């Protein structure tokens, strides 16, 4: 029987099956953080159940953490309590924790791949919807709820119904200044935010094969914004080269053995998918969202749709935009480059390359938040911090930051923020905040101009 990449990974992890029902799936790696794990630990304690395989769990502090003065006691009481509880739970159950200040601390979906924890052919879960990020390695990775976190603690398994399969193929050459973020925003704008419901998506074609691992992670990160359970990209030499030599990657002959297996994780020719979509790379331009879900996106040089739609009208009322309007020239006071979508070294290289020799606009509040301590180290080693400093920017310390308004980094009521994060829901970045999702390049250009500009049109110096 011809199998898809998803089938191959799923089927090798099935512990048991109920006829015409769900299956018990073994979980290779369980990632946890300070926000969604305490309730699950409490459930185990209440029922006197031990953590079954603590060595398969990795913990980090990221969601509700400050991004300034991390060496000082955390001021926010809720955050402080969550971090203390995480430390206590990890100590009690012998779980590896990368707390604030640790050299490996960072956003859970940034630090796990860069440490070589995430590998092809794995099943990987976390109490966070954007766990789909790890699918970029050819892993089945998805977010789970608190009760499921407790299930994995107790059994290292989950009772699940196998999702349907979708393949999205993008072939051809991308236009100038089109980044992976633009590719996924374009796909979601074309298919909609519910198009992937009940499906796992495989991204295939020239565009993804030619992407870096960091770009692939951006794409798979946002597969959840299509309503999918997760996204995957078949592992290849790009994947193997990325993993090789990382702290927890296989070493020596073990690595060679793993690669031989990983090379089998391609969808067989003729394998069937429940849905398939095809796109031409040449149709994709630098993107930006105008509404209150990630599917409300347009090319920078397009205008907001004028169709009669209640959801569109409600969204535009919240955003204070008009049908048929262009976003070019729209004043913006906040820019955020960060989140588990776009806070890796490549994202900061793109931004630094654009801002080098320029100055941030006076009206701009720019939050540049690396995804991990290792990214901070790379930024400093490559001198990118000096470029940002000269341009008037300030780097913050790692954390989820302004992605989700759970910490101190909130966008004020009524303000626009061009953000490299993954969601533009009402109030996502702060009560009353207005989020416009974009690539690190578009965000950097906005920071320099103080307004939204077309990155394909040179900025003319004002006289």
TrEMBL record:
It is an enzyme of class 4 (lyase). Its EC number is 4.2.1.33. Pathway: Amino-acid biosynthesis; L-leucine biosynthesis; L-leucine from 3-methyl-2-oxobutanoate: step 2/4. SUPFAM superfamilies: Aconitase iron-sulfur domain. [4Fe-4S] cluster binds at residues 340, 400, 403. Pfam families: Aconitase. GO terms for biological process: L-leucine biosynthetic process. CDD domains: IPMI. The keyword Membrane does not apply. Residues 7-450 form the Aconitase/3-isopropylmalate dehydratase large subunit alpha/beta/alpha domain. It catalyses: (2R,3S)-3-isopropylmalate = (2S)-2-isopropylmalate. Its cofactor is [4Fe-4S] cluster. It comes from the Bacteria. One of its GO terms (molecular function) is 4 iron, 4 sulfur cluster binding. Keywords: 4Fe-4S, Amino-acid biosynthesis, Branched-chain amino acid biosynthesis, Iron, Iron-sulfur, Leucine biosynthesis, Lyase, Metal-binding. Binds 1 [4Fe-4S] cluster per subunit. Catalyzes the isomerization between 2-isopropylmalate and 3-isopropylmalate, via the formation of 2-isopropylmaleate. Heterodimer of LeuC and LeuD. Belongs to the aconitase/IPM isomerase family. LeuC type 1 subfamily. PANTHER family: 3-ISOPROPYLMALATE DEHYDRATASE (PTHR43822:SF9), HOMOACONITASE, MITOCHONDRIAL-RELATED (PTHR43822). This is 3-isopropylmalate dehydratase large subunit. It comes from Kordia periserrulae.
């Amino acid at each position: 029987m011809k199998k898809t990449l998803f089938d191959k990974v799923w089927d090798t992890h099935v512990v048991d099956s109920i006829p015409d029902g769900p299956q018990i799936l073994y979980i290779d790696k369980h990632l946890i953080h300070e926000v969604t794990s305490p309730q699950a630990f409490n459930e185990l304690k209440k029922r006197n159940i031990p953590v079954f395989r603590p060595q398969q769990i990795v913990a980090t502090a990221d969601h509700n953490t400050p991004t300034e003065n991390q060496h000082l006691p955390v001021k926010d009481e809720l955050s402080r309590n969550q971090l203390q509880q995480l430390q206590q739970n990890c100590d009690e159950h012998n779980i590896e924790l990368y707390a604030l200040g640790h050299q490996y601390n960072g956003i859970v979906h940034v630090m796990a791949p860069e440490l070589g924890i995430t590998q092809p052919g794995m099943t990987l879960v976390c109490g966070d919807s954007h766990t789909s990020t790890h699918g970029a390695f050819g892993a089945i990775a998805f977010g789970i709820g608190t009760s499921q976190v407790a299930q994995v603690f107790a059994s290292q398994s989950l009772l699940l119904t196998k999702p349907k399969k979708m393949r999205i193929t993008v072939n051809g050459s991308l236009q100038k200044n089109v980044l992976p973020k633009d590719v996924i925003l374009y796909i979601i704008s074309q298919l909609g935010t519910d198009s992937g419901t009940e499906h796992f998506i495989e991204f295939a074609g020239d565009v993804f094969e030619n992407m870096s691992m960091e770009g692939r992670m951006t794409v798979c990160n946002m597969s959840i914004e299509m309503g999918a359970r997760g996204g995957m990209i078949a592992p290849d030499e790009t994947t193997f080269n990325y993993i090789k030599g990382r702290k927890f990657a296989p070493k020596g002959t073990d690595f060679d053995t793993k690669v031989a297996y990983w090379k089998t994780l391609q969808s067989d020719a003729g394998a069937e998918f429940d849905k398939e979509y095809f796109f031409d790379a040449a149709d994709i331009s630098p993107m930006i969202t105008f509404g209150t879900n990630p599917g409300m996106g347009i090319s920078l040089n397009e205008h907001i749709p004028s169709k009669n739609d209640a959801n569109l009208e409600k969204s535009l009322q919240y955003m204070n935009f008009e049908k048929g309007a262009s976003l070019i020239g729209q004043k913006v006071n906040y820019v955020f480059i960060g989140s588990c979508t776009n806070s890796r070294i490549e994202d900061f290289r793109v931004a630094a390359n654009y801002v080098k020799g320029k100055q941030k606009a006076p009206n701009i509040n720019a939050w540049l938040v690396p995804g991990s301590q290792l990214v901070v180290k790379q930024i400093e080693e490559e001198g990118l911090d000096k470029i940002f400093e000269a341009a008037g920017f300030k780097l913050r310390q790692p954390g989820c930051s302004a992605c989700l308004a759970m910490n101190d980094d909130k966008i004020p009521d009524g303000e626009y923020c061009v953000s490299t994060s993954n969601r533009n829901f009402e109030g996502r970045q702060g009560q009353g905040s207005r989020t416009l999702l974009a690539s690190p390049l578009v965000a950097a250009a906005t920071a320099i101009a103080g307004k939204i500009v077309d990155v394909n049109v040179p900025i003319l110096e004002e006289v």
